[in-house]
Structures are given as C-alpha cells and as structure tokens.
Design a protein that fits this description.
The protein is α/β, with parallel strands linked by helices. It is about 35% helix and about 15% strand. The chain contains 8 helices and 12 strands. The chain has a 5-stranded parallel beta sheet, sandwiched between helices. Strands 6-7-8-9 form a 4-stranded antiparallel beta sheet, covered by helices on one side. A 3-stranded antiparallel beta sheet has the order 10-12-11. The longest helix has 15 residues.
Amino acid sequence: MDTPPPGPGPRVLVVDDDRTVAEVVTGYLNRAGYEVEQAEDGPAALERAAVRRPDLVVLDLMLPGMDGLEVCRRLRARAPIPVIMLTARGDEDDRILGLELGADDYVTKPFSPRELVLRVESVLRRSQASAPRPRTGSLLRAGGLTVDPDARRATKNGTELALTVREFDLLAFFLRHPGRAFGREELMREVWGWDFGDLSTVTVHVRRLRGKVEDDPATPRLVQTVWGVGYRLDAEPEHSPAPAHRPEPEHSPAPAHRPEPAPEPEPVPDVVDGDRGRRP
C-alpha cells in the first residue's frame, strides 16, 4: 500500500542510521498526518534543524560519530525543540542522561511504531501549550517563584529560570496545587498526559526542576519527597495585588450630611460596611 503524501501537520525530524527503522517510523508518522524529514547522522540532523526548525525530533541514541546525546545537547542549546530518544541500550543511566540533557521522552528498541506515534502526539500536545494565547493575567506565585502561564515564563526571586517545556509544566502544576502530595503515576497522567510510561521520567524531571528552583537541591525546601506517595510543593501561595475589597474613595458620591432628618435611627458604630458615613 502506498504511503499517502505528507499532510500539513507538524514537522518531525527522524534521526537514525538504521534505514529500515527510519523508513518504518517515517511511514507511520506520515500516515498519522505528520510531515517527516530524515537524517542519518548527527551533523546532518543539526544542519537540517538549522535550515528548517522541526516541531519535534525522534533521535536515535546510538549514532555513528556524534552520538544522540551530543546531538540532543546541541539541539536544546539552540532552541527548546521537543526530543524523543530511541535507544537499544538497556542501561538505565543512558536513558536518564538523555532526559537530563532535555529529552522529553524515550522509547527502547524494539518498539511499537504505533506507540511511538502516540508518544509523539503527547509530547507535541504539551509543547504546543506554549503557542500564543489570549492573556488571562493570572500569575502563579509561591515560595519566591512566579510563573506566568500565558507568557511561559518562570522566575525565582525575580531571576528568570531556563526551564524545558516539561519542567515548566511540572512547576506550574505544583504551583496550582501547593501542599498537596501527588504520586508519580498521577503526575505522569496530569503533566505528561500519559496513562503509561516509565516512571523514572517523572523522577528525573523532578530532580532537574529542583536543581533550578531550590537554593540547595541536596536538601530541597520547596519540592519535597513524600515517602511512599510521591512529591509535594511546600510553599504558601502568594496572591498578586488586587483591587478587591478596597474601601471606596472618599470622593465617591455619598449622601452624608444631608439636612433632612434620616428616617432611621443613627447607625450602630460597630457595623462595618467598608465606607463610613454612607447610608445603605
């Protein structure tokens, strides 16, 4: 069956020196509506990404010459491009290192192409949350941290934080629910949008987030581990200044000192209505 021509969907760069794997992945992504470009090694991938930035990169870890970890490092140094790593290695250290370099997810070979397509959809769905949207004006504040969900900016004590897409989403989620403990499965479902996956992904991202928001990541004060449960943000929410419940200005119209006698008795002094001298 012929593969239909690529549609106008998001652009995915597939980087794998195994031509068979690359063709299979490309075919499935094409059928799912993605526009796909291929590269066989690290330098070619960096060149293609520089010429035309992809929306997501599927990156093999074991590339000849420049390996996938170095390619990921260079890609993320240029722009926050979402990356899904493919690996045939069984060593967990390599997968965790890839996540620490900024990869958003990884898939271990052999893998189901349909599962990979679902991972691509999930990662893109989260990364596209940074697209321009109407501003709501709501800021999330706690423990010296400020997150602007509309602008996708986060600061600590006024200094901007360099967060990946997933780190930003994780911090924003914690700030929306301060004081509540979440299990790793729940965080994976709420932040990543996955009902399946390796829970070490959550562990690594929490560790990376602590490295950016904590004064001393070795003894975290904000993102606490709740043994047997998961993680909790220990910080009181800080509310942005708002004009609500302010007393009305003194020049507001008020019938005080009117010459005609009031039909009611004098108001009781201990009744607080926020504007002395005004009649109901």
